């Protein structure tokens, strides 16, 4: 059906930057909201940022001014540019997309497999 494939995670020093990418593939008719969430062991998955097809964005207070979400609708891809990274940003980051398949009239939520981001010196 739909696959969301994330890339770009890794190890970075405090104050550094990373860019995450997430590409959606499959029998996609359209994609509504796309976004990023993160999770650390023992805690619930938390909201990071979302973006609409028209480019309207929202951010968690903890990342405002440091993270920027963007998307390329032609490529069905969403990005997360992360600057001024802090050790508390360490988590598994998950991509999310609300997708309508070619034979459907409704949207279904899909998740990527997650990519690890570690901020440490």
Provide structural commentary:
- The structure is a single chain.
- The chain is mainly beta and 121 residues long.
- The chain has no helices and eleven strands.
- It starts with a strand and ends with a strand.
- The mean pLDDT is 97.
Write the topology of this structure:
Elements: E1 2-7, E2 10-12, E3 18-26, E4 28-39, E5 46-51, E6 57-59, E7 67-72, E8 77-82, E9 91-101, E10 108-111, E11 115-119
Parallel strand pairs: 2-11
Antiparallel strand pairs: 1-3, 3-8, 4-5, 4-9, 5-6, 7-8, 9-10, 9-11
Number of helices: 0
Query: Termini, distance in Å?
Result: 40 Å
Would you report the number of β strands? 11
Content-based structural category: mainly beta
Mean pLDDT: 97
Helix proportion range: under 10%
Largest sheet, in brief, is: 7 strands, mixed
Measured by DSSP, the beta-strand proportion falls in: over 45%
SSE topology string: EEEEEEEEEEE
Question: What low-confidence regions span 5 or more consecutive residues with pLDDT below 50?
Answer: none
Shape: elongated
Radius of gyration from the CA trace? 14 Å
Task: Provide key terms for this protein.
7-stranded mixed β-sheet; 0% helix; 4-stranded antiparallel β-sheet; mainly beta; single chain; 121 residues
């Amino acid at each position: 059906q739909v696959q969301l494939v994330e890339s770009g995670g890794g190890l970075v020093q405090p104050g550094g930057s990373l860019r995450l990418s997430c590409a959606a593939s499959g029998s996609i008719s359209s994609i509504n909201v796309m976004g990023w969430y993160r999770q650390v062991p023992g805690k619930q998955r938390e909201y990071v940022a979302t973006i609409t097809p028209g480019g309207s964005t929202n951010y968690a207070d903890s990342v405002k001014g440091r993270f920027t979400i963007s998307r390329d609708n032609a490529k069905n891809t969403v990005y997360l540019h992360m600057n001024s990274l802090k050790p508390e940003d360490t988590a598994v980051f998950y991509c999310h997309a609300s997708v309508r398949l070619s034979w459907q009239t409704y949207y279904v939520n899909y998740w990527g497999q997650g990519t690890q981001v570690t901020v440490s010196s």
